[in-house]
């Protein structure tokens, strides 16, 4: 089952009790089928009650789950003939961002995404999914290549944020992010971004200036982490739960505010419970977006993107 999140503990304990009774029944001449059936009904009701009423902080924990599928996982499940491309042609390669060319249902595309690790060794290699400037410059290089050859761009967002270290600042972190924002705004091919885990700050937005922005149901998208916001507002990172509620960082809140376009439902308990089923849902969203955006020409795509972001924050009394 993997790591158990705190809010899931009642569900896990009930599952363990069911397994215990099933094993006892199998090993002894005792019929406990009625008791097991009652517990399974109770488990189903408990799962519905907990998973359908998750608080923002619960969703943050699911978005950070170490077993949650990553960009490479989805690439392997969704696309054919993926060829990974490396380097920014200026400094080096950044393992925190992966990208290349592939095909989606016979349509040539460019796919780019943040990549974190699933264990300590890989997290060190990937810098915990926090890119340096060369990562964003690699992403931009691949986007401009996609524009040259008329390929739609699909971005997977999953990062706590851009790496804030001294080396990253020396190599122009803020400039690299800013340039991505400007260049993405003017791309003449369809751009689809999908938040699959954490979408943190400018590090996420550097892959998020898209015609369509989708979010997995339990992912987050925010200007800062709940812990960071709590530290700034209340000088106490332990108040992250309250910050998560106040910041409106979950998919339902962002959909309501018009910041994202669609919410992709997750399998019960989170994408890590059934990554293949989750990939199918993501594929359906990509297909729908490509069909809709495919009716627009280059200027129409730029205007569509401009209008989308121009309307964010507009309200009437």
From TrEMBL:
Its main location: cytoplasm. Pfam families: ACCA. One of its GO terms (molecular function) is transferase activity. It is found in: Cytoplasm. Keywords: ATP-binding, Cytoplasm, Fatty acid biosynthesis, Fatty acid metabolism, Ligase, Lipid biosynthesis, Lipid metabolism, Nucleotide-binding, Transferase. It catalyses: N(6)-carboxybiotinyl-L-lysyl-[protein] + acetyl-CoA = N(6)-biotinyl-L-lysyl-[protein] + malonyl-CoA. Pathway: Lipid metabolism; malonyl-CoA biosynthesis; malonyl-CoA from acetyl-CoA: step 1/1. It is an enzyme of class 2 (transferase). Residues 42-292 form the CoA carboxyltransferase C-terminal domain. Its EC number is 2.1.3.15. Gene3D superfamilies: 2-enoyl-CoA Hydratase, Chain A, domain 1 (3.90.226.10). The keyword Hydrolase does not apply. Component of the acetyl coenzyme A carboxylase (ACC) complex. First, biotin carboxylase catalyzes the carboxylation of biotin on its carrier protein (BCCP) and then the CO(2) group is transferred by the carboxyltransferase to acetyl-CoA to form malonyl-CoA. PANTHER family: ACETYL-COENZYME A CARBOXYLASE CARBOXYL TRANSFERASE SUBUNIT ALPHA, ACETYL-COENZYME A CARBOXYLASE CARBOXYL TRANSFERASE SUBUNIT ALPHA, CHLOROPLASTIC. Acetyl-CoA carboxylase is a heterohexamer composed of biotin carboxyl carrier protein (AccB), biotin carboxylase (AccC) and two subunits each of ACCase subunit alpha (AccA) and ACCase subunit beta (AccD). Belongs to the AccA family. This is Acetyl-coenzyme A carboxylase carboxyl transferase subunit alpha. It comes from Sporosarcina psychrophila (Bacillus psychrophilus).
């Amino acid at each position: 089952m993997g790591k158990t999140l705190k809010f899931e503990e009642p569900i896990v304990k009930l599952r363990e009790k069911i397994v215990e009774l099933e094993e006892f029944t199998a090993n002894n001449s005792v019929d406990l089928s009625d008791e097991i059936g009652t517990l399974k009904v109770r488990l189903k009701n408990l799962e519905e009650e907990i998973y359908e009423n998750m608080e923002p902080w619960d969703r943050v924990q699911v978005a950070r789950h170490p077993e949650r599928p990553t960009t490479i996982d989805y690439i392997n499940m969704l696309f054919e003939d993926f060829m990974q491309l490396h380097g920014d042609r200026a400094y080096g390669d950044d393992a925190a961002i992966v990208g290349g060319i592939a095909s989606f249902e016979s349509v040539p595309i460019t796919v780019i995404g943040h990549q974190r690790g699933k264990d300590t060794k890989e997290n060190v290699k990937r810098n915990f999914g926090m890119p340096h400037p060369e990562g964003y410059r690699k992403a931009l290089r691949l986007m401009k290549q996609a524009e040259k050859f008329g390929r739609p761009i699909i971005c997977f967002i999953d990062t706590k944020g851009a790496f804030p270290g001294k080396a990253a600042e020396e190599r122009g972190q803020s400039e690299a992010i800013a340039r991505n924002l400007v260049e993405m705004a003017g791309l003449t091919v369809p751009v689809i971004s999908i938040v699959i885990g954490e979408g943190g700050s400018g590090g996420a937005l550097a892959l998020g200036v898209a015609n369509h922005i989708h979010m997995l149901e339990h992912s987050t998208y925010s200007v800062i982490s709940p812990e960071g916001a709590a530290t700034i507002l209340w000088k106490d990172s332990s108040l992250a739960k309250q910050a998560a509620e106040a910041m409106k960082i979950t998919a339902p809140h962002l959909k309501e505010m018009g910041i994202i376009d669609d919410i992709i439902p997750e399998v019960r308990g989170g994408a890590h419970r059934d990554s293949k089923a989750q990939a199918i849902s993501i594929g359906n969203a990509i297909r729908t977006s490509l069909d809709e955006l495919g009716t627009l020409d280059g200027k129409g795509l730029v205007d569509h993107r401009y209008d989308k972001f121009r309307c964010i924050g507009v309200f009437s009394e």
